UniProtKB/TrEMBL annotation:
It comes from the Eukaryota. This is Tc1-like transposase DDE domain-containing protein. It comes from Araneus ventricosus. Pfam families: DDE_3. Gene3D superfamilies: Ribonuclease H-like superfamily/Ribonuclease H (3.30.420.10). The lineage of its organism: Eukaryota, Metazoa, Ecdysozoa, Arthropoda, Chelicerata.
Length: 92
């Protein structure tokens, strides 16, 4: 699986994948709905927005992001990982 970027389609990459017996999966060039990290960024952003008081300085924002990242529920990660099959099926 790749995002169809030109470097991923270089002959050397194609040759390597073929030699290793790796098959490519068709993948839309730009598909944020299929990228679980986009959902994690959203969850992180929402968590920081709930902070009170809101971060007032860049250093406060950095601290809040690091803290919320640490506290991010692993259930969110697990759900996003297991939902990939459903999202790929819906996209196809």
């Amino acid at each position: 699986m790749d995002d169809n970027a030109r470097p991923h389609r270089a002959a050397i990459v194609d040759n390597f994948l073929e030699c290793e017996g790796i098959q490519r999966m068709e993948w839309p060039a730009y598909s944020p709905d299929l990228n679980p990290i986009e959902n994690i960024w959203k969850a992180l952003g929402q968590a920081v927005c709930r902070c009170f008081p809101p971060p007032a300085a860049l250093s406060d924002l950095e601290t809040a992001l690091q803290e919320e990242w640490r506290l991010l529920d692993s259930a969110v990660d697990n759900h996003l990982g297991t939902s990939m099959i459903i999202r790929c099926t819906l996209c196809i």
